[in-house]
Specification:
Length: 251
């Protein structure tokens, strides 16, 4: 693959209901990931561009806008960022990368995202799709990254916990396509023990839901200890660990 720049865009258009909606919102999160990957590449002087659709009002307009933007030249690698949806949110779901003819790259990025989360986001691998507009109608090579599923409490927590690692993993593989490497300064900063202990990104609603869930699982004997009173002081990692235990014991 002989490309001169990485061309990144988040999927869908500006309407937050234009993508998948669950515990995570695809439109909002895809923009966060796409922008962060772009920032990491830019900081390392890796040639890249960023597009987002703030004008369309339907899917056809959106696909046409993105295809037209990318087809203005033929020297880039197109990277479309999405989040997936499906199932009941309790099964083993993770990350995957869709491709038209870039199987090897899709395999590497799916593997890298999974590895960045310690296997928490299960590697669903590369899947060929020749029916998707951005993959089929653009001149340049293209991949579509489904970072994770929006409808799983467990996987949403993994995504939030490892957001920086996921973005760095994606950026690392994209940089390699141009024969580039990332600067050390773009890597994820190491948090102190105090910062890690204090880290808890759950919203107030999520905390209340988690308290209720932990109370119920304790009353039903699924968990032997009542952790519901400790939710406010839990780290994201501790909350995630308990959620994984609950899911595993109730399947």
């Amino acid at each position: 693959m002989n490309v001169k720049e990485i061309e990144i865009h988040p999927g869908h258009w500006i309407n937050p209901r234009s993508g998948a909606v669950g515990i995570l919102n695809e439109v909002i999160e895809a923009r966060k990931v796409a922008k962060r990957v772009y920032e990491i590449l830019k900081t390392s002087n890796v040639p890249c561009t960023y597009y987002e659709d703030n004008t369309s009002t339907n899917q056809r307009q959106n696909i046409n806008y993105l295809v037209n933007q990318h087809n203005k030249d033929r020297d880039g690698l197109i990277v479309s960022i999405h989040l997936n949806s499906g199932g009941d949110g309790s099964k083993a779901i993770g990350t995957e990368v869709l491709y038209y003819d870039q199987q090897a790259l899709a395999v590497r990025i799916s593997k890298a995202i999974s590895a960045a989360t310690g296997g928490g986001l299960i590697n669903r691998g590369a899947k060929q799709r020749k029916d998707l507009g951005v993959l089929a109608s653009t001149y340049e090579p293209a991949i579509l990254i489904e970072v994770c599923f929006v409808n799983s409490v467990v996987y949403a927590a993994i995504y939030r916990r490892d957001f920086e690692k996921i973005c760095f993993a994606i950026a690392t593989e994209l940089a390699k396509c141009l024969g580039e490497s990332l600067k050390p300064s773009t890597s994820t900063p190491t948090k102190s023990k105090e910062e890690t202990k204090m880290a808890n990104s759950l919203t107030s609603t999520a905390k209340e839901d988690l308290k209720a869930l932990l109370k119920t699982t304790y009353q039903k004997g699924i968990l032997k200890v009542d952790h519901s009173k400790k939710v406010s002081s839990m780290t994201d990692g501790e909350a995630l660990g308990l959620l994984i235990s609950v899911v595993k014991r109730t399947l």
